[in-house]
Amino acid sequence: MSRIERLLERMTLAEKLGQLTMTASSYAVTGPVIAGDSTDSIRNGTIGNLLNMVGAEHVHEMQRIAVEQSRLGIPLLIGLDILHGHRMLFPIPLAEAATFDPGTWWLSAREAAREGAADGLAMTFAPMLDVSRDPRWGRTAEGPGEDPWLAQAIAVAKVRGFQGTEHASEQSRADLDVRQSGTGLASPESLAACAKHFCAYGPVTAGREYASVDVSERALREVHLPAFAAAVRAGVAAIMPAFTDLAGVPMTAHIRLLRDYLRGELGFDGVLISDYNAIGELIKHGVAADLADAATLALKAGIDIDMMADAYRRGLPVALERGRVSIEEIDIAVRRVLRLKEQLGLFDAPYGRGARRETSETLAQRRKLARSIAQRSIVLLQNDGGVLPLSASIRRISLLGPLADAASEMRGCWAAACEAEGHVSVLGALRNALPRTQIRHAAGVSIDGEDQSGIESAVELCEGAEAILLCLGEAATMSGEAASRAHLDLPGRQRALAEAVLNRAGGLRIPVAVILFSGRPLTIPWLAGKANALLAAWFLGNEAGNAIADVVTGRVSPSGRTPITWPRALGQVPIFFGQRSGGRPFNPEDHYTSKYIDELNEPLYPFGHGLTYGRFSLSNLRVSASVLGEDGVIDVQVDVKNEGARRAQETVFLFTHDKLASVTRPLLELKGFTKAALEPGASQTVTLRLSGAQLRFPGLDLEPVFEAGELEILVGPCADRARLLGTTIMLRG
Ligand code: NOJ
Fold this sequence. Notes:
TIM Barrel; Rossmann fold; Immunoglobulin-like; 3 domains; 6-stranded mixed beta sheet; binds 1-deoxynojirimycin
C-alpha cells in the first residue's frame, strides 16, 4: 500500500478536511480574513496548507509543528503569489510578455522559484494566464496580453520555469550568461505552479473587476482555454478557478469546465485550488444557500483545496450528514493534495526548501538578470527624429513628472516579498549613468492629486535644458487585482503638467521624451501627437531605473514589442488584432460599413509595435513548400536588414489568415515570432516554422478541424496589416 493510501486509512474526517484547507498567515491578504485559526490547528491536523507566509524560519517553524507535533506528521503546503519575482522583482507579466522571448519567461520564473523556495515556499499562485483585450481590467497587468498563442507560449515557459523542467530556448540563456537548468518539482529549488484564473476572467463585464463574464463557447475554445491547455500539457501542478461566473455559473462550481473539460478532456490530475474565499462567495453569487451547499458545489466540481473560505471544514461535515457528498469524494481530493505534497518532496525533505541561504553571487546574478529583462521589456512607442537615445555629450537634462523619483512605484502590482526600499528610480539611475550631466528635477504634480501649484516651477526647469524627460503614468496599485479603471488617461493633473511642459518645450525647441509607467495601455493620442519620443516603461521591478537609463542613454537599444493593442479612445475597447471581418468591413466610400463616426477604427499602436534604435526592412518572403497538410511543417523565411546606424534587435511576427472557411476566421492569427540582432548594414535570413497542426480551429460543431483551401501567410514587424509581407499557400486535407 502506498504512503498516501496508508495515511488515508488512518485519517479522521477532521484531518482530511484539514488537508483540503488553506488558510492565510497574516503576512498579506487579498480579501476578508477568516479568523480563528492558530498554530494549534496545524498541531491537531485541521490545517494542512498555508498561504502568505514569508521567510524560511517562519515556514520551518510551522512545518516543524505539522511534521513533528501533529498525529500523522503530514507536511504543510505553503504558497504565495510570486507573479513577477519574489524578493527581486522582475517586470510585471504584461511587461515581460513584451520581450517576446520564451527563454526569458522561463528564466525569470526559474529564478523566482529558486528565490521563493529559498524562503521555504513550495507553491506560487502563478502563472496568470488570462487573455485580456480590455485594458480597463486592472489584472491585465498580471497577464500575457491579448493573444491566445502568445499566452500559450508564456504558459509553457512559466510552468516549466517554476517547476524546474527544462525549456527548449537555450539561446537567450546563453546570451544572459545565467547558468540555470531544470531540476524538477521535488527539487528544493522548485515551486509548484498554479495556473490561474481558470477561465475567461479577462472579459469581465465592462472591464469591471469581479463582474460577470458571458462569452461564447467559441471564444472559450479559441481565446481563453488554449493557455490553460498548454499549462496542463506542460505539467502544471495546480489550477485556480476564477472568482467570476461564466454565463451564470460561478467558475468555482463549474462542473462542465472543471470536471468535464479540465479533468476529463485534458486529463488534468493535479490540484484545483479555489481563489481566496471563492467557495464562500458562492452564497453571494446566489447559487448556494449556505456553506454546506457551497462546499458541496465546489467539491462536486473537483476543487481540492478551499482557500480562505473555511467552507470545507465547516460545510462538508453538514453536507455529509445531508447525504449531499460522500466520503469517497472527499478522499479523492485528499489524495490529490497528498500526492502533490509527495511530488514536491515535502514528505521526504520537509525542510529542504529554505535549508540554505542564497549566496551574494546568486543575488548579484539575479539583479543582473532583472536589469536585462527590464531593458528588454521597455517598448519604444515613438521616436520622432531619433530624439532618443540622448547624446552622449548632453550637459543639461530636466527630469520632470511624478514618476521621475518614485522608486517604490517601480515594483508593480505583485510586490510579493519585496521590500519597498532598494529600487532604483529614474532620477537615481540617470544621475549614476550620466555623472557629468546636470539633471534638474521636479515632480510638478502628484500621480493622482488635484494640486496643480507645482506645475509652474516644473515648467520653469525647461529653460536651459537640452532634453526633457517627462515621467508620467499610473501608480503601481492602479493596476492589478481590484484596480479596474473607467478612464484610461493619465490620472490626476498629469495631463495639465504634460501640456504645459510640451508647450514650453515646443516654444524653446527642446525635445521631450515621455517615459510612461502603467499596468495597461493608456489612451493618450494627444500625448503621442506632441511628445517627440514615448517609452512604455510599464512597471519594471527592482532594476527599473537602471534599465530605463540604459535605454535612454543608448547603452541598450530598446527591443520590446507591445503584447497588447493600445487604443486611441476608451470607446474602441475591446480592441485587438484578432478581430473578424464581419459582413461589412470598413470601406471609407460606404457609410454603412463597420466604423465609428467620431473615431478611427485603428488603434494608437498595434499589437507587436515597438521601435528600436536601428531601422529594419523585411524583404523576400518565401516558403519551403506551397502545400501544407495537417501533419506537415513548412519553413517561412524572410530577409531582415538593419538599415539604421546602430546595432539593434528586430522581432518578426508570423501571422496567418484563412480567408474562406466553414467558420469565419480572425483577420490575423499569430503563429510565431523570432528575432534578429543586427549590426548597422547587416542582414540575416530568419526562419519561422509553421505546422499544419497549428492551423486547426474549432469547426462548426466546435470540434477541431483542419480545412483544405488557401491560407495567407503574413510576416512583419507588428499586427498592422499594411506593414506585413504576404504570400499564399494551399492547405491540403
Ligand atoms: C486573490 C487573487 O485573485 C489570486 O490571484 C491570488 O492568488 C489569491 N488572492 C491569493 O493571494
